[in-house]
Amino acid sequence: MKNILIFCGVILLIYVVYRVYQYQTLDDGLDKLIKNGAVILDVRTEKEFETGHIAGSQNISLGTIRERYIELDPDKTYITVCSHGLRSVKVESILKEKGFKKVYNGGAWSDLQKSLEQK
């Protein structure tokens, strides 16, 4: 029982840290980047993208990014989004490995959309 409580405590702590990081990232000028021409890169699957997305965003899934990154312009600014923010972190890392300098994690697409609507 004690181990289960410790495990749940650790999971809760990770979740709280993730949410704080996510909100800090969203408030860290992403709206200004978008106003200055940043491309929102939605890295969910096509089916997920079809269920809802930020208007004007580009869809290249995490599963295809290693082949399709050549479709992107390394001189542009990209903000990666997905359903919860985990895949977008991975794609941000992959693009940076491929030489992209201006890539930012936008977290969950729905949270970013709400943030943009409020500003």
Automatic annotation (TrEMBL):
Record has DNA-binding as a keyword: no
Pfam families referenced in this protein's UniProt entry, alphabetically: Rhodanese (PF00581)
Transferase recorded as keyword: yes
InterPro entries recorded: GlpE_sulfurtransferase (IPR050229), Rhodanese-like_dom (IPR001763), Rhodanese-like_dom_sf (IPR036873)
GO MF annotation terms: transferase activity
Positions of the Rhodanese domain: 34-118
Keywords of the record: Transferase
Domain of life: Bacteria
Protein name: Sulfurtransferase
